[in-house]
Amino acid sequence: MADDGMLLNFELGDGPLTSQVKFKGGRWRDRVKAQRSAKQQHNGPSSTPPTRDPTRPAKRPRTDDGDSHRYTKIPRTGDEAPKAPSHAMKTGQISSSLFTSNPTAVTDFDQPTVEEAEPAKPSNAPLSEEAENFQALGLSRRVAQHLATKLEMKAPTAIQKNTVPQLIKEDSDAFLQAETGSGKTLAYLLPIVHRIMALSLNEDGTPKDTKVHRNSGLFAIILAPTRELCKQIAVVLEKVLRCAPWLVCTTVIGGESKKSEKARIRKGVNILIATPGRLADHLDNTKVLNVGTVRWLVLDEGDRMMEMGFEDDIRTIVGKIRADKLLKENPDGVVLDGVLPSRRVTVLCSATMKMNVQKLGEISLEDAIHITASKSEMDKDAEGSTEAAFAAPSQLKQACIVVPAKLRLVTLIALLKSTFARKGSVMKAIIFISCADSVDFHYELLKDTKTPERPEKPTEESTKQQRNPHTDTTVAPAAYVTSPANPTVILHKLHGSLAQPVRSATLNAFSTCKDPAVLITTDISSRGLDVPAVDLVIEYDPAFAVPDHVHRIGRTARAGRPGKAVLFLLPGCEEGYTTILPAATPIAPQLYESTLQKGLASTVNLPTTTTSTAAPETTETKQTWTSRAEALQLHLEQRLLATPGFVPEDMEEAPKPKDKNKGKWSKQQQQSKGKPKTEPVNPLLNAGRQAFRSHIRAYATHVREERVYFDITQLHLGHMAKAFALREPPGGIGGGVARRAHKPSGSAGEKKGKTSGGGGGGKRDDDDGDGVGQVDEEAAKRMRMKMKMMMNAASEFNIG
Ligand SMILES: Nc1ncnc2c1ncn2[C@@H]1O[C@H](COP(=O)(O)OP(=O)(O)OP(=O)(O)O)[C@@H](O)[C@H]1O
Description:
Layout: H1 28-43, H2 141-149, H3 158-169, E1 174-177, H4 184-197, E2 220-223, H5 227-240, E3 249-252, H6 258-267, E4 271-274, H7 276-285, E5 296-299, H8 302-307, H9 311-323, E6 345-350, H10 355-364, E7 369-372, H11 382-390, E8 396-402, H12 408-419, E9 428-432, H13 436-446, H14 460-467, E10 475-477, E11 490-494, H15 500-512, E12 517-521, E13 534-539, H16 546-553, E14 563-569, E15 588-589, H17 592-599, H18 625-641, E16 645-646, H19 667-673, E17 680-681, H20 683-699, H21 717-722, H22 777-793
Parallel strand pairs: 1-6, 1-7, 2-4, 2-5, 3-4, 5-6, 8-14, 8-15, 9-12, 9-13, 11-12, 13-14
Antiparallel strand pairs: 10-11, 16-17
Helix pairs in contact: 3-4, 4-5, 7-9, 10-22, 11-22, 12-17, 13-20
The protein binds adenosine-5'-triphosphate (ATP).
Keywords: ATP-binding, Helicase, Hydrolase, Nucleotide-binding, Nucleus, Ribosome biogenesis, RNA-binding, rRNA processing
Family: Belongs to the DEAD box helicase family.
Protein name: ATP-dependent RNA helicase
């Protein structure tokens, strides 16, 4: 792991930087670029950023010459400081230059990105009303009218068009695979509701003699991996059931006492939405939960449930339901067969295809039909349909920005600033970060430290959100990224380490926020979450596996709406990652220079805090985006260094001694080794250090197949520290990170509870290779064959 960060800490002078740096080592090309970059700063901003050719494909990472092609190295002799010019800041602070010694992209982009003139036709949008309507799919007029008038859904999406008639007419199992945001939830809910309603309504909508009510039996169980998703499904179902108010749904998802869940079940429920663990518990312990009438079992986000370690729970649930004799009529004597399916139907839903979906299919499906947006016959042309389902929505514009590590933080701020520069252009943005510690840190760093003076009156909604005690530490006005057009931008954070009420309240605050809003989050928000008006997804840290990337960017461009996703990559081997990403349209390169120039075109509103001696702005620094970037970075670093608080003894780890694989620790780190553990340290500095450590550990958890692009030995710790506003990398990262054994996230047998991204790794492979438990072995074999066929079609993305 390259670690010469300390050698790059140059001082800044009062005036603009001079180009006196003598660059040594590395390739001549890198040295020339670094010299040019330094000169550029000396001469002020260039009106146009450097140009590259976006049409040229990204080069594969070079692995034969170590990291010499990636970084301009300044050779060190022992612990000697670099021979670099020093410039003392007025404040006496020391900071390195952001724009020197950066590795250059191996991809040559000679032209800045040109936005596509013609947006692609949306691939997950509702079909045209003239061509399709819900009634024509076999739904009753009552349901179709309710959808059109109350939910403003006049036409089905493609997956709904293919699924609804199938599940209304046929009683076979189904595997639903369609793009993110294509309406899979309603695709399975509508036929279930339609058929349960048919127990009490004739085809013309007149009531039957038979009365069905909440105590008539539990007819459907829907399983989803997280409480948030269960609640989201329940909200959609409740809206649909307003046209059949005699039917009742409820959730059993934990987060409240089992007693109150039992009480709701006892009162009677027709459709139950549950997390697998909680349902398995109730099946064991809640006598009133009778599954004899259950005709549908839906497994939503099936691959995620497997990843979270719910395999055993699902086996138990499937086994228990199948073991219970199917009742032909309910206890009131209502005949169920004929109206409801005459067998138990399992529906498995997934947007992406992974090995664990195959296993889940074996556990739960029998002779399932594969339904995609383009066709409803699994056996025909499976290859094409699977690949289509795997891609991101076609209208989703994907961009990738190759940013040197030192410039990541200021580029993120610049991107957000330009995003919110115009009123109404972007209302909601999600930033995906690898681990919870890093989410916490970035939230603390980017939030306004005190209530800002708002030129405009805050909206009623935002005022209400501030008052919610559950969101006190997760929702706050943002600093840095506001603009005259958007003086209020609300920052939110969400990860799996937060308490459930806080998670729910934060998500609700983000969904309902009327002001422009940013959600900083881990992969906990990558699946199934349907937040209206998300216009932009920023993958500040790339996903741990390609399917996760598809889910993350799928939080935007839903149901035919436009959306944009920006992926941050480091120069070097990470650039090759774009070649394995499924994209309906080419991933457009976006130059970080352009982003900085655009975002920092005007002065960044640096909040004056008691902890910061904000970077002085000279006449010249006001004029250049490079100087603004430097000033912003300096300001952030100063915030971490000022106003110390006391570090609890257990929070600050002593730096590890020299590790033969990692090179020497810097002089400063060695010095800090002997310091007392109660040395006063700013809590923000602590958070930055912790975030840095967790980030590096999380980096090592990319799936094995993708580690050629995310090679931890290529990470430059000194440069990466800058991305956390740190002057140097902290200790306590651990020497074994790079060599830790990792299981792909798609592998079976991972344990539940690791929902906040790969932070810290720790995923265990404890697959015991059992057969299929209580599931019919023959049926499992047949399903295995079919799923394998589909998996082969998606082999490009197979994991493990
Ligand atoms: N027929 C329709 N017309 C208009 N909007 C629709 C229609 N069907 C679904 N939607 C909307 O599309 C959005 C996405 O639906 P849904 O959450 O079911 O997608 P999904 O396919 O499950 O996505 P993911 O794979 O990301 O979970 C929702 O906001 C939903 O209200």
